[in-house]
Amino acid sequence: MFNEEGVSNAIKWMKDDYRARKFSIRRNFLIANEFKSRYRFSKDIVLNILLPLINADLLKVTSRGLPVPPIYQLLVALRFYSSGSFQVITGDLIKVSQPTVSRIVKRVSYLFCLKMQRFVKFPSNLETIKEQFYSIGSFPGIIGAIDGTHIPIQNPGGSYAEVFRNRKKYFSINVQIVCGPDLQIYDIVADRPGSVHDNRIFQASTLKRKMEQGIIDGILLGDSGYGCQKYLLTPVLQPETVSEENYNKAHIKTRNTVERTIGVWKRIFPCLSKKLATNLTTTCHVIVATSVLYNICRSHGIVEEIDDIGYTTTTRQNIRNTQAYNREGLLFRRLFITRHF
To answer: Which residues does the UniProt record annotate as the domain DDE Tnp4 (predicted)?
Structure first.
């Protein structure tokens, strides 16, 4: 025989179980718009494009106990990227623990990182890219716009933690982005601490070596934090002629594509704007994985435009210190302005 308290608890349990089952049914039958708003992709793209990219590797991981099916692992990772919520909240969606979510995010992010060379790269036809950039601001020869952006992280701890504290006094990863005229990401470097300067990241990058060797033929546009080179043009600090003013106007208008790209990328994947609490290796993998997914978004017309994006500014002292060691680049820029503006 049940006492009154036992009956009351049993009824409460039945109601809670009913609500949980109703929520589960509702979750499994999300309409197209609801699914897309939560996972950033349509059901067709998730099943036919994203899942085949990582399905085989996810099946190889483990067969012990009751492993989470690959489709659930993909959805958990996408939900984490698109919400930036705590992992325990993401886990509640399919009734898995926070440690399981952590392992899933780590695993799926790594697998998408392996696809970077396929999805994050310069197009083979750079002449078309130059024409598209020229149509934006009448700036000839441009194949990409470059900039750095800080991805906030939690204090990594250890004796080198302060290396990750940036000039704005919070811990971050300084990520270098190169984008095209259609706001696709062409190149990314996502493993530098927040204290490292943008120009230093570029100087140590593979992209710089490829441009010096002529493997990638064209010009990048960067802000005045970068050193002016033959293959990377920066604004004129103090324009004195009409040609230099026209050059600066065209430079700002054309380079704005990278500001928009970073803004849209972070809007689609809010986890990049919130303080990532994963370990450093997983954090870098998450950043690169979202860049792969972002390019897939753009190639399938899944975009979110941002209206209010400002321009990156740099102090005059920093500009002088950076450009003082690039006299050859400054001379090339002067001749470039005389020829084209």
So the answer is: 146-295
Question: What are the tens digits of pLDDT across the range 258-309?
Answer: 999 999 999 999 989 888 888 899 999 999 999 999 999 898 887 654 443 4
The structure's pTM equals 0.82
* Residue carrying structure tokens 């003082």: 324
Sign of CA dihedral 50, 51, 52, 53: positive
Q: Give CA 320 to chain center in angstroms.
A: 30
Q: Where does residue 183 fall: left (phi above 0), alpha (psi -120 to 50 degrees), or beta otherwise?
A: left
Mean pLDDT throughout 184-211? 92
Q: How far is CA 132 from CA 98, 127, 129, 247, in A?
A: 46, 9, 5, 18
Tell the residue number behind the tokens 């704007």, with chain if given. 273
**b/e string for 30-45 if b means 16 or more Cβ within 10 A?**
eeeeebbebbbbbeeb
> Which pLDDT band, with edges at 50, 70 and 90, does 16 fall under?
very low
Q: Cα separation of 318 and 240, whole Å? A: 20
Residues 6+ apart with CB under 8 A from 110: 285, 289
**Residues counted in the chain:** 341
Cα-Cα end-to-end distance for the chain:
93
Which of 147, 129, 148, 149 has its CA nearest to residue 139?
129
Beta strand segments in the chain, E: 142-152, 172-179, 185-193, 219-221, 232-233
Which residue pairs, CB below 8 angstroms and at least 24 apart, start in 95-98?
96/68
The alpha carbons of the chain give a radius of gyration, in whole angstroms, of 24
Burial class from Cβ neighbours inside 10 Å (0-12, 13-18, 19+) for residue 333 reads buried
DSSP structure class, residue 222: -
Burial bucket for residue 137 (CB in 10 Å: 0-12, 13-18, 19+): middle
Q: Are 287 and 151 in contact (CB under 8 A)?
A: yes
Structure tokens at 163: 């290396």
